[in-house]
Amino acid sequence: MEKILLRLDLINHKGHERVIAYCDYCTVLNKILKEIPGAKFSITYRSWHFPPVKEIVDILKEKIRGIAELDVQPLREKLLAKKQLPVMVQSQLIKQDAVEFSANNLQALQRFIETLILKAYSRSTIRTYRNEFSQLLKEIQDIPVQNLTVDHIRRYIFYCFNKYKISEATANSRINAIKFYFEQVLGRERMLIELPRPKKPLHLPRVLGENELSRLFRSIINLKHKAILFTAYSAGLRVSEVMNLRLQDVDSDRMQPFIKCSKGKKDRYVTLSPILLDVLRAYILKCKPRPIKFLFESNEAGMPYCARSAQKIFQTARQSAGIKKEVSFHSLRHSFATHLLEKGIDVIYIKDILGHFNIKTTERYLHVRKEQLVTIISPLDDLWKKGGIEI
To answer: Looking at the annotation, which residues are catalytic?
Structure first.
């Protein structure tokens, strides 16, 4: 049988973007397209169309193999014309199990994600909100989500506590996601203001002492691994901030690494330890291949090192050092802040270095002038002076 050409394009169908498949009629192919999750037939276009999910091209390729050939050029051109914005980005966030939702609620999920993207929420926040909102859609099944009342949401959260034993943090996250939908997507004013909020437990951060840090750092042989952990502790950086540090961000003249668009979309400068600078220079000289964009790169040139790999480095070092505490890579940040506080550094400066919001004035950031910043000695330097670590 002669192969049929299946041409993919992007259309706007009833106010929603869809991936449409144009082709000559074929009974076998028609049956295959009909069975693809989310498939709908348009009488106007006389073709099947699908949700604009990232995986749709791969799904179609697999399903039509040996029967038809796929032409994705029209679809690619449309996406490039839109600067590759959001259909495919958004689609990555709609799980395959979304096909279980009713058409109405799937549309609500799509609008929900679109709004999050347009408001420039971070990827992690979008992922969290999507997951929490999807849990609600799974529970209500065919009930239109926009018809829910405050009492419905109250009973739903109560149900989640009883059946799934969710934590206080999860409950608050779930409420925040639902609140976003009703107030930001549907435009309803302060709909869930009266909904009771579970009180978050106060968890004290796990901190490593100087002796433990000395053992931890001495247990590392690999220079790149040592440089990663030194960087995190010396300036109190998050693992994502260490991984996203670019070579051009390390200003050795001003002794200030630049942390770009971190949590809360805030830029900030931190202190550059002279000891860390020596370690980084030694690491870059010996690193093969040398990094070309990021300070710490993966095996693929120009791509940042994986955060999970950095966390594994920490856990391996912790085990080698015989540290029994339940600590993580983030404990280096907690330890940095605690040790500065113990050395008499003002808590306001510490908040600024860490990039935290001010508790009293959440709309303002506290900034430290360079003159003040360079006078703060990194605890990594103190540790080296005491002979606790080797370079």
So the answer is: 238, 263, 330, 333, 356, 365
